[in-house]
Q: What sequence folds into this?
């Protein structure tokens, strides 16, 4: 191996791949760190709530419009969340540096929004 | 000595403005390449292309014997590349410990304790990144990179905006990474700090790059002295 004169390199098994078999599955799936995925889900839920409250207050209370566009799932909120996640690119960079696919973050955001939208639709159906 | 990383003959334009014509940068195992150039000359663009974060108009990225025409960071990272951007790498609201755990989750925790001691981060582990000073944040980012044990580290202006004692800690960390066999590319305008750790100097000017030898050879390079280092270099 080449390098600086007189240098001895450490043989480090961590360099190329995870060491344990348990760790190789997330590696193969390019999964991000679950702790950060939870942060993305939490932020998506908070953003969803803020957007929904905004819709409810602006469209519902101020414009007196309680039509389906306020109560039913739309693509607007997921699109906004994906855009917001994209704005946090510098955070995703750490996880890209660890070999994780950023698609997991978009998927987590969208799944959170769809779950909340669906739940809200079911709860609000009687009204 | 064959490089394990090279961004070769890279060209990049933004609209009518050509930033890179045929720029190259490379790094060999156990060696530190310093990339110098004036503000806005395209150093960061070249590193970002090399890390797979930006697409080049032409050129190729070579990493560990494989050629990539359209590299992506996660692919290169899975094979051992780590890109340290000039702006923040860490999530501001998460603690340093949590972000180190993300690396350990993927790559194991054999090295962590020693690295935290060397970088003086033990007292800062439970603070969110946003509460750290610029130098502490930089040390935490280097810790994350070091724990990952990369084959190649691309560090964009790592010495920018930090005090001399933090710069010395960072320089030691870069030397240690090189001793472990990591290939490093470092950019920056902090000439004494960068020259001190570098084994080789690459100078970027007018959209292309020139390998101008060791730091000692670079400091004797007439045009580099005249056009980049300026009159103060001769004093």
A:
């Amino acid at each position: 191996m080449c390098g600086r004169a007189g240098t001895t390199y450490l043989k480090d098994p961590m360099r190329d791949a995870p060491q344990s078999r348990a760790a190789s599955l997330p590696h193969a799936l390019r999964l991000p760190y679950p702790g950060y995925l939870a942060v993305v889900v939490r932020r998506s839920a908070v953003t969803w709530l803020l957007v929904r409250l905004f819709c409810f207050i602006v469209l519902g209370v101020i414009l007196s419009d309680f039509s389906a566009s306020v109560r039913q799932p739309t693509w607007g909120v997921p699109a906004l969340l994906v855009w917001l996640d994209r704005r946090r690119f510098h955070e995703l960079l750490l996880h890209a540096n660890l070999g994780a696919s950023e698609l997991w973050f978009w998927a987590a955001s969208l799944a959170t929004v769809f779950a909340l939208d669906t739940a809200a639709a079911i709860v609000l159906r009687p009204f | 000595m064959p490089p394990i990383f090279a961004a070769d003959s890279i060209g990049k334009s933004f609209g009518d403005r050509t930033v890179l014509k045929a720029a190259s940068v490379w790094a060999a195992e156990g060696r530190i390449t310093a990339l110098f150039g004036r503000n806005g000359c395209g150093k960061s663009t070249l590193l970002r292309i090399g890390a797979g974060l930006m697409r080049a108009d032409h050129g190729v990225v070579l990493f560990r014997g494989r050629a990539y025409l359209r590299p992506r960071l996660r692919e290169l990272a899975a094979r051992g590349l780590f890109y340290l951007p000039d702006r923040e790498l860490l999530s501001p609201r998460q603690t340093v410990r949590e972000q180190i755990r993300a690396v350990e989750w993927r790559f194991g925790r054999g090295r962590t304790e020693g690295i935290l001691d060397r970088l003086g981060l033990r007292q800062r582990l439970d603070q969110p990144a946003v509460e750290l000073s610029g130098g502490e944040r930089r040390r935490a980012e280097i810790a994350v990179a070091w724990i990952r044990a990369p084959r190649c580290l691309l560090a964009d202006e790592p010495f920018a905006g930090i005090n001399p004692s933090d710069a010395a800690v960072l320089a030691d960390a870069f030397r240690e990474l090189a001793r472990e066999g990591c290939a490093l590319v470092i950019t920056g305008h902090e000439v004494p700090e960068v020259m001190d750790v570098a084994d080789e100097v690459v100078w970027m000017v007018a959209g292309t790059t020139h390998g101008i030898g060791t730091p000692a050879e670079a400091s004797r390079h007439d045009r580099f002295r005249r056009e980049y280092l300026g009159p103060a270099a001769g004093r």
Chain A touches chain B at residues 1-4, 7, 9-10, 12, 14-16, 18-20, 23, 26-27, 30, 32-36, 39, 90-91, 93-102 (CB under 8 Å).
